[in-house]
Amino acid sequence: MLARALPFVVFVLLTCLEQQFGRSSQYWVYFLKTLVGAWFIFEMRAAVPEMKWAFSVEALLVGIVVFALWVGLDPYYPPLFGKGGATWNPHLQFGLNSAAAWFFIVARITGMTFVVPMLEEVFFRSFLYRAIAEKDFMGMPLNQFRPGPFLITSVLFGIEHHQWLAGILAGLAYHWLVFRKGRLGDAITAHAITNFLLGVWVIWKSAWNFF
Q: Which pTM does this prediction carry?
């Protein structure tokens, strides 16, 4: 349980520290929590055998569709926590196209592509869903469908994000992959594809609200 829950909890607690030590601290804290998250993933690998990348056509399609929904739905509903990530723009903090700005942009896209999907999918789809459904959650197969826990974890996943509606739909889609494939890896891959495409979109369109 600790191997599946503690890394995500620590990651969220570090997120709460962003901007607590001045405007520039959000960049350093994100970089720090990416390193901490990567270390957790390295340490978790033996205790969480389902935490493995898996590629499939379905994972690719879900990743792209969720990205399209995330961007396409954004103008039509209010974000959960106000402007939130719209303040995250290292070009304004460190200078346009400065080395520091690009360092933190690359660090953010790296973290959201390779670290966040693993921590979140393990917590929501492997641990929380099964822990809500069964007291002995480890004895429950990943692809065993329970409607209540499925909806609860998808909603909780959604409200963890500023774009809550897209987050809920993403949670439903990623968990559908787990049910369809009977493994966590496709959801991790789809999640990573979505996040990477969002990172590219942010740079291309200067759409900093998605950070």
A: 0.94
Rounded CA-CA distance 22/20 in Å is: 6
Low-confidence ranges of the chain (pLDDT < 50): 83-85
Q: How many beta carbons lie within 10 A of that of residue 9, not counting itself? A: 12
Report how far residue 188's alpha carbon sits from residue 113's, in angstroms, rounded to the nearest whole number. Answer: 9
Contact 210, 88 (CB under 8 A): no
Query: Tens of pLDDT along 33-74?
Result: 999 999 999 999 999 999 999 999 999 999 999 999 999 999
Q: Quote the pLDDT of residue 169.
A: 98
Euclidean distance between CA atoms 133 and 136, whole angstroms = 9
Q: Which residue in the block uniquely carries the two structure tokens 């609860």?
A: 152
Q: 64: which residues sit within 8 A by CB, 6+ positions away? A: 193, 194, 197
Taking Cα atoms as reference points, which of 122, 99, 159, 161 lies closest to residue 37? Answer: 122
Those residues with Cβ within 8 angstroms of residue 201's Cβ, 6 or more apart along the chain or in another chain: 67, 71, 207, 210
**Which of 124-152 are b and which e, b meaning 16 or more Cβ less than 10 Å from the residue's Cβ?**
bbbbbbbbebeeebeebebeeeeeebbeb
